[in-house]
Structures are given as structure tokens and as C-alpha cells.
Design brief:
0% of the residues lie in helices and 39% in strands. The chain contains no helices and four strands.
Length: 82
């Protein structure tokens, strides 16, 4: 989370191996239960290591219930063989 005005909500991480998953359809994704939902009310730099994942697609889902926020995400992947 980069900046915001009293953001309330959370960020979750999801995976899919479908050839063309729809980012708006949760049924196309599996949520990573090993990573706790990140609380958006903490406006600070947050680091989460998503390791040992053999998924073709990674989705970061923000559910904001109030306030504003500026979110910066960076992801690096290394060749996934499916």
C-alpha cells in the first residue's frame, strides 16, 4: 500500500492454472490460505513473499470498504512448467 486516506479493507492473493481465468470470477481462482489477508488500514510498505507456487496466474484482490488508497504491486515470476 503506497498511500491513502483512512483505507479500510483487505488484500488477498489467489492462483489459477486455467488458460484464461476471468479476474472477476472467484470460481476461476484458489485463494492462498497460507497468507493471511493483509489489512489495508495499515498504510505502510508491506512485504509478502509468495513462494513455492506452481500456478500460471497470480491475482491480487483488494476489497476496500471505505477510504481511499494507492496500491503498488510488483510481482516477479520464474518459468512455470504446467
Amino acid at each position: 500500500v503506497g498511500a491513502g486516506t483512512s483505507p479500510v479493507g483487505n488484500l488477498t492473493i489467489w492462483y489459477s492454472n486455467l488458460p484464461a481465468p476471468d479476474e472477476t470470477v472467484d470460481a476461476h481462482w484458489v485463494q492462498d490460505a497460507s497468507i493471511a489477508s493483509l489489512d489495508l488500514s495499515i498504510v505502510a510498505n508491506t512485504f509478502v513473499n509468495v513462494g513455492n507456487v506452481n500456478a500460471e496466474h497470480v491475482r491480487f484482490k483488494v476489497t476496500r470498504t471505505s477510504g481511499t488508497l494507492e496500491l503498488f504491486l510488483y510481482a516477479r515470476t520464474e518459468g512455470v512448467e504446467v
